[in-house]
Each structure stands twice: as C-alpha cells, then as structure tokens.
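mind reviewing both lines:
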Amino acid sequence: MSLEWGLHVFVTDMQVAKTIRVSGEMIIGEVILELVSALTGDQDWSDHALWWPDKKKWLLKPRITLNAYGVQSDARLQFTPQQKPLRIQLPDRHFREIKCSFSVMVFEAVIELCEQMSIRHPEEMSLIKAKPFTGQARGRKNGSDERELSPAGPPAVEVTSSDYPDGLFGDLLARTTEERANLNALWLDSTKSLAEQDVLEGDPVQLKFKYHAFMNIDPKIDDERINQLYEQAKWSILSEDVDCTEEEAIQFAGLQLQVKLACQAPPPSPNVKSPTLDQALSELQTGSPHRSQPSDILGALPSLGARKLAGYLRYNKPSKFSLVRSYKKYWFVFQDTHISYYKSKEDASGRPALKVKLTGAEVAPEVNVTKKKFGIKIDVPSIDGMGQFHLLCDDENDYAEWMAACQLASKGKTLDDPSFDSEVSGVKAFLTMQSKKPQPSDVTEVSPNDFVSQRILKKLKPHKVAEMIWKHRAKVNQLPELEAKLQYIRSWEALMDYGISYFIVRFSRAKKDELLGITYNRMIRMDINTHEHKQTWRYSAMHAWNINWEIKEMKIEHEDSNFQFSCSSADLKIVHEYIGGYIFLSMRQDQEEELDTEMFLKLTGGWHQSSDPTVLPSSN
C-alpha cells in the first residue's frame, strides 16, 4: 500500500487553502476529484487545472501520477482557471481585455486570440511582454498615442496613459539599432505557456506581427488584419524603427493623412454604389474566380494552362570596369519562377541565352515617372554571393506586370498565384501616386507631430512639413481608406531595411560584437558601428541549425560555411525561433490549411529530438 501524505492546494477562485490526502501513485484526475469533493458550492470546475508555481508547471494530464510529475509532500499547488483575462495591446495601440488560455503554449494562445478578433493567419503574430519601466518615458510629444476603447472585437476595458507609460513595450523608446536589438528580448517563447513565463492575470502584453512574411492579404475578408498591419507599419515609421529617407517619410505622411480623411468622410448613400471602392476591391481581390484579364503579352501555355509573360525589355548586367550603365534589347519570357531571355522573339523556340530562377532574389524598383524610367533591379543569390542585373520596361503597364511577376517569384510564387492581379494593381497604384501632380486643396490644420518622426521635425519647420504632407496627399486623394492602407503597407515593404530583426551577437573566434539581421529569407552579418553588410546566408542553402545549451552558442550549417555565435541582446531561443518560424512560414502552401503545430514545434523549439532531416536535434 502506497504511503499517503497531505497535499496543500490553494483554490484561487475561493481564496481558500485545502489539504487533501493523496499518495504518489494517484493520478491527477483522481486528485482533482478528491479536491472538488472537499469544496462547497455548485461551481463549474471544468476549466480549472492544477498549477505548480514553484516549478512553473501545469499538471494537465489526468492519467499521469503525482510521482511522474515529481510532486511530493512539500509541494504547494494552485487550483486555478486556465482561461483568464489578459490586457492585449494591438498594433493600433488600443487595449482589449480578452480571456485566453494561460495553460497552452503561446503559439496556440495567439491562434485563440486572433480567432476572437477575426485576424487571419495568426502564425505571423506573437506576444511581447511589458518592458520594465523606470523613470520618465521618451514617448512622442503629442496626443496621437491615445489608448482608447477599440470599436470592434470582444469587450474591452479602457486603459489610460496614466495606467501605463508611453513606450510600455519599448517600441517608442528605441532609437539606435542596438536598442532595437535589445527589444527582441521581450518576445515571449512561443513554445511555452503564458503562466510559465510569469505572465499574470490582467497583465499587459502586446500582440504584434512578428514575422514579416504576410500571406494572401484579401481586402474582402481581411479588414481587421489590414488595419492592424497598417498601424504597425505606421508606428514603425513614426518611431523610426525602420529607416527611410526624408522624401519617403513625407510620402508615408501623405498616405496617412489620406487614410485619416477617408476614414472621416461620410459613407456613400445606400442607394448609390461607390465606383471607386468597387473598382478598387475588384482589382485588389485575391483568389477570386473573376480575375482581371492579362494584357496582350500575358498568355497561357495551351497544354498546361500555366500563365506566362513575354515581351521585349532592355537588359543590363553591371560591370566593374564600366561607370556607364548600357542596356541591350532582348526578348524576355517569364514562366513559373524563372525569367529567360533570347536575342529575338524568333529565337524563343530554342534555347535561351540566359535563364535565372528568382526564388530568394531581392527585387527593387528603379522608377522615375517624370523621366519615363521604369526599371527593376534584381539581386539573385549565387555561389559567389549576389549576382545583379537590371531591366528597363517601355511603359507603366509593362512595368507593373513584370515587377509584380518578379516580386512573386522572389517569394517562390508563380503567375498563377491568386495574388498576382493584386500585386499588379498595387504597383500601378504606386506609379499613380508618383505621377499625379498635386492639386490645390483647402487649408486644413495638420499637426506634423502626428505624421512624421522627430528627426524630420528637427530638420524642417512645422509649416513646411505640413505643406509637403498636403502636397503628397493630393496625389492619393482619390484612394479609399482601405486601398490607402494597402498602399502604405506595400510602400513599407519596399523599404531597404524593412523586416530586419536585429540581434547583437559574437561569432566564434571574433574579438568584438556584431549585428545579426534576420529577415524572411536570409540572415545578414553586419558591422555594429557602420551597419555595413559583411555576409549573407540564405535559408534555402542552410542545412541545419541547433543550440548548444551548455556553452550558449548557436551553430549553423550552411552550404557556404559552418559558423557559430552567441547572443548578448536576447536569449538564443528567440534567435532560433525567428529562423525556424520563417522557415515554417515558407512551407505554407494552402492559404486556408490547418496549421501544423507539431512542425512549428520541431522547427522553433530548439530542443526537440527528431529523425526528420529538416530538423536538427539540439546539442546537449
């Protein structure tokens, strides 16, 4: 017969402590039945579970014994609800108090939260814990950071600025790249529960887009997702989390002003359709059976039904010995994720002079609408690093289609992808914004503090900034609110430093710290002072990665080289999760497929042993 002893359990709902007689061979289900029978009242205990605070462990498996969990007579357990209220700050800086599970891992809790708020693709988001606050915050000096009740979603509670200081999560405080790197330490571990990471009932946490790899943004069903993406993009520009030029900052401000004014505009009469909005939705929709027709140069293979793009473009490959960029005209064909060129259209039935796969390439615009220059710069990964070439299109329509095709191919998508038409319309909207001449508008009070960063305001006088904002807003004043937000997001994605998450690391045998930038398709080694790019490693050429927990180093096996580094700005688990998370997102095929939680754990856990060749077991 097993030895019995007294187990101390604190019931959080009733604020009472109970001692029940148990043995080490009792299973958790029996312990809970014994505890509930000793409590008075008819309360529903179905959502309650045993929590071990000292060990930060949930005892959730009803058929596992106390001995198996390591519970002995000195243990102090809690019987507490798994669903508890949490104060969530969204990218729009509004707080919502929502109940979520404190016992499931954060990855699953985020899925639960996003489902309640009608935000698709929750795998792109995660939670940030509050930054320890001491002293006066360096928040923005205006009233634009109001924390109000959100107009949509589950019941919310108002949290005023006196409750929480500006920069609660550090995002308004970071100024240098090193400060941004330190903020990445605040991400919660997606493979652990909230309770295991010292998040308490009612604590503030921030829900943000962690991975900058957004799948299938559909304006017909993603209005909340688009709004939160726009807000995160806006605040990253205003707080200078992403670097941009003065001209780019004013363009963003013009779009922001258009969003604000379009939002305040009275809705159209219910009996009158808005042709601008209908047309925009028609052009932007993805996955619709009523897709816009391709242009004359956009065709389809008769046998396979695959779309292709063909036409004359001018081509240039930079030379070290030439300062002048000269272009030659060739017949180009774009199919699947490959771009090929021939000396002439008549040669297209033969072997191409060059064929390049664009998956993993970096695609950037080289556009000057005034000078009728519609260029595309493409950097393609190669054995020697990055190979670069330039294309010139004859007009805006050709440019929009070729640019959209190259952007999709860089992400591994073909012309048959449902988002192709949306990409084309987005590029055209960008060109329209660049080409429109500003029209005179009524003088309206604009506070530059709400639209540009402090750096811009220190350089230019406020009235000059306001004038420039109105000038650029006039170029987009026909855009409805939703399309203006989408254009803002696309422009944000086109920035040079977009989507780079920084970490301060030290490579093995190196004598000083360096920066490691992690993006959706590669890692970048950078000088910590000059930010010069020293080396790039693409995930597509990475064979394995793991963490040696004993010496706190991450090892990467890449086809170019193997290397190791430690991280001083954040836990290595966060670095591991970023890399594994991006690889997990790149494996998504069906936009509506059920998320493979087990695969996410294998790729981001940092501790799973697996025979799967795509997952490297950690070193112990």
